[in-house]
Every structure is written in C-alpha cells, then in structure tokens.
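User: Working on a comparison across species. This one is Substrate-binding domain-containing protein from Coprococcus intestinihominis. Can you predict its structure so I can line it up against the others?
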Amino acid sequence: MKKFICTVLTLAMVVGSLAGCGSSSSKETTAASGAATEVATEAAQTEAAAATGDFDTSKEISVNSREDGSGTRGAFIELFGVEEKAADGTKVDNTTVEANITNSTSVMMTSVAGDPYAIGYISLGSLNDTVKAVKIDGAEATTDNVANGTYKVARPFNIVTKDGLSDVAKDFVDYIMSAEGQDIIEQNGYIKIDQNAAAYAGSKPEGKIVVAGSSSVSPVMEKLKEAYLAVNTNADIEIQTSDSTTGVTSTQEGICDIGMASRDLKDTETGVTATTIAQDGIAVIVNNENPVENLTSDQVKSIFTGETTVWADVQ
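Assistant: Here's the predicted structure for Substrate-binding domain-containing protein from Coprococcus intestinihominis:
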C-alpha cells in the first residue's frame, strides 16, 4: 500500500512539473493533478480502514435494550445508573427512546451479532462466540471475576414461590439447592450460591411442575429440569419462558408453581418468597467486528441514555 501511495504521489509531482513547462493546457493539468491527489487520498483512507478492520467509527451506535419487565433490564439500568430517582422519589428509566427493544436473550444476541455497530447486554451465562463481551472498567466479564468482586455488573438468579407448594415442586426446589443442582449451575457458566450444599436426598414424588418467567434464568432451568427428571422419573416439568415480572405475577396468581426472576423482588411484589439459586454477571456485548475492548461504567451509561451516539466518542 505504501509503495502504491508513493507511486501515486510521484505521478502527481510529474503532472505538476509538466504544468510548469507548459506542455499541456492549464485545465488538463489541473484535472490530472486533482485526479492523482484524489487517488492518493482514497489510497490513504483505504490503508487506514484496513488498520481498524473497516470499522467506521463515525457510524451511530445501535443501542439494543430489553423490554420493560425484563429482570436483566432492571438489573442493568440499576447497576449502570441508567435508572435514577426523580425529585418525588420515583425511579425513572432513562434508556434512550432510540433503543431497539428485544424481548429475549436470544433475540438480543442475534440483533447484536447481525449489526457491526450494535451494543446490548445479556446474562453472562448465555454468552457465546457469536458476540463479544467488552471489559467494564478494565475487568473482564468472567464468572471468576464476578465471584471475586472484580467484575461488579452482577445480579441474583431467583426462584419465586408461595405457600402451599406441592410435594413434587418442593422436591425440585430441594434438588436445585442440592450439591448436584448447584454443580449444574456452575457447569453452565453461573456462580453457585452454596459451595457446601448437601447431596440430594429427595423422596421422588409424582406430579407436574410449571415453571415460568425470566428468559435469562430459563437456560439453566432447562438443564436443572433435565437432570432432575433423570433422578425422578415420576415428575413432569413444563417451563414457560417470558420475563421476570411475568414470572412473579404468575406465581402470585397460581398460574405457575415456581417463578423465575433475574432480579430481586420489588417492594410491591408481595405474597411470594424469592430464593437465590445462583449469581450471574451481566455482559455488555458488541459485534465481533467492533474493535472496542473496554468501556467504563460512565461510557455505558452515556451510550444507553443517548448522550453518546457515535462510536468515535468511545474510542
């Protein structure tokens, strides 16, 4: 590339010399010189683009957020300060109105994977190589860093129940909190809540269990379901994936036996009890073509509130 640019610049000098000698018309000389300069400029731009992987930092940031009611959104906006208290004490979600709203973890990942200029957030346990997790304040998004407190963007995974739980639902909860259940949680990229849990010693009762709620919790719940049904063939488990708020209200209304919530209960969510089964980090994700490797917490907040709108401002 450098040799090409030098050749083009030499051509421009030759054209300029010819102009001085009067060997061609002024208009022809000017046009030739301009063309040479344009080629040199384009060549330099091409070389610069190659150095950054053709990522155009002047492009607008495509912000992707989860829907209202999502536990991941609730935890994200709280942890990054996107949610703030108004003068009257009410909480205000300042997520930019320009954000693309996705209704599940899988849709979020697909959206970011398909747009070089996109940014979003997902459960750390759901992260795969279709997208890239950026460091936050210099800390890599890993389960070890969540466990040791280095990576601070983390939240609980809760199951929600109310009084009158059936024997088989109680037994499934016991399995989740057992050594076997906690190991499954850890094996799937989450942080177990009890390092010294006792082995499962359930009675293997018969019956159906309906579990409903958070799309962040449901992947690991599917793994727990599979393992539990292997030891208790008398049980039948149905998992309905939606969001944390639906998981809580469905439990309150008796629509499901166990709710899933990727956040703590709100003060207004009464009549049910939350039990933390795991800890999970929230990964801030970008497209694999994006050269950005690290963002500060303030930069993330600025992006998701709409204050920062182009990638050049976060380089």
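For your comparison, note: Confidence is low (pLDDT under 50) at residues 1-33, 39-52.

User: Helpful, thanks.
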